[in-house]
Design brief:
- By secondary structure, this protein is mainly alpha-helical.
- It has a three-stranded parallel β-sheet, covered by helices on one side.
- Helix 2 crosses helix 7, helix 3 runs antiparallel to helix 8 and helix 8 packs antiparallel against helix 9.
- It starts with 7 loop residues before the first helix and ends in a 9-residue tail after the last helix.
Length: 292
């Protein structure tokens, strides 16, 4: 998993010695569907599951979350567990914000704390930066954005974009005990809908923030249109406004689709309330008449 352009499909191609087929070389995400590729590592049969990125151009974030959720749930119901979860990040990125940060936060909610020990944070594109710069960025990631995950057992791996580097990582994973992730347990074991999961809540929150920021930009474009000194500038601003307005409407539509119905919100609140009261009942001593 990870943002588009971080080398997920390329990693699968290298590990399976499959060349560049299915590997994207543009700014847009090449993978739009869940893609499973099987190979043998150290005598063990494994399946590499390549997932689409949340910033893909072909599908909305909601559609991508639904497809990942559907695959994980169905595989879990068949008894298929995960040996490891690889999260890819470009070390060539000079900051962690916007889409990369959204991907990371949704990823954390999808995995859950219990599965963090099965997560490997894979850094790619080391050939695009100076060694010292890459090391500095890795230290920032480990000491800030990935700190909590590493504290719960996640590890990091420098991927060298070679067959040997990819297979070395996979050989470490096949020896691990397989387990489920948080999203699988919430949907399959607890019978929750996708809209009731922690991954949904994180995406819902991010979409709200995105819509708010884009609305602010729309307001600035509107002000600039009124101050435009010539028709060409006004027309350009009008086109920008129209394009961004479509994005805002799509973002709000996705957020509305993720919104939990009021009845289910109330049910979730009651479950949480009664669970808290139950714990209080366990720990508060009973009142006995005449006790001093």
């Amino acid at each position: 998993m990870g943002p588009s352009g971080t080398g997920k499909s390329s990693f699968v191609a290298k590990a399976t010695n499959g060349g560049d087929e299915g590997v994207g070389h543009t700014l847009f995400s090449h993978t739009s569907e869940i893609k499973v590729t099987k190979c043998i590592i150290g005598g063990s049969k494994i399946a590499l599951v390549d997932t689409p990125s949340f910033n893909g151009a072909k599908k909305s974030d909601l559609q991508i979350l639904e497809s990942i959720s559907d695959w994980l749930t169905k595989s879990y119901e068949k008894g298929t567990l995960l040996s490891g979860i690889l999260y890819f990040h470009r070390i060539s990125d000079n900051r962690m914000a916007g889409t990369p940060l959204k991907n990371l936060r949704v990823f954390q909610k999808l995995c859950g704390r219990e599965a963090m020990s099965h997560v490997v944070l894979v850094t790619t594109m080391w050939d695009e930066v100076e060694e010292s710069v890459g090391n500095e960025r890795l230290e920032e990631l480990e000491g800030n954005y990935w700190k909590g995950m590493i504290a719960r057992g996640s590890t990091t791996y420098r991927y060298g974009n070679t067959l040997e580097s990819s297979r070395h990582l996979l050989s470490q994973l096949v020896e691990r005990k397989r387990r489920e992730n948080h999203l699988q347990k919430q949907i399959a074991d607890k019978n929750l809908e996708l809209r009731q999961t922690d991954a949904r809540r994180e995406l819902y929150s991010h979409l709200g923030q995105t819509a708010e920021k884009r609305a602010e930009i729309l307001a600035r474009i509107t002000a600039q249109r009124h101050q435009a000194g010539d028709q060409a500038t006004a027309d350009d601003l009008r086109k920008r406004y129209k394009s961004l307005k479509i994005e805002v409407d799509q973002t709000l539509q996705q957020r509305q689709s993720l919104k939990l119905p009021s009845v289910k919100r109330a049910a979730a609140y009651l479950r949480k309330t009664f669970r808290v009261r139950y714990y209080l009942f366990l720990f508060v001593p009973p009142f006995i008449s005449g006790q001093q």
